[in-house]
Amino acid sequence: MITQILTHTPLWVFGLFFGLVYLGCVQSRTRQVSRSRLIVLPIAMLGWSLYSVWSTFDTHLTALAAWACAWGTVVAIGLARGPSRTASYDAATAQFTVAGSWLPLALMMGIFFFKYAVAVAHAVKPGGLDTTMVVALVSATYGLFSGLFMARAVRVVGTMKGQRLVERSA
């Protein structure tokens, strides 16, 4: 059955997989990024997860509400945790130094394989994802993954405020 699933997978899916692996490997190294570049990945993951909900469940109100609740909760927890301890902001260059982490790769692979599994489940048993509980669970999982990306970015951006407070007190 696995061979049949893989042979029916469009080629672009494999390209997307390898692109995400590359992007995750880049995230594993400490790097300097601007604020606009820092937010690109979380926005892309937000869009991808919303598209995943929309393409699977259309405008199902439960799906959109579950996604929004999970996303908002994770981002709020990120805000409550305060600025990142593994990032810093240099006002002179307007750049963030972000410590390398394998977490983004893990999250991207989580979203990718979860979406792939949902698509396979939908193809193998059409209508099998139509119960309210499954709709809410799948949508909330997409919201959780993309919320983690956004929470991480928000915490890094929070280092700007901490840097400004240090500069004012000096």
Automatic annotation (TrEMBL):
Keywords: Membrane, Transmembrane, Transmembrane helix. The chain crosses the membrane at residues 6-26, 38-54, 60-80, 92-114, 134-154. It comes from the Bacteria. The keyword Transmembrane helix applies. InterPro entries: DUF6622. This is DUF1453 domain-containing protein. It comes from Pseudoxanthomonas japonensis.
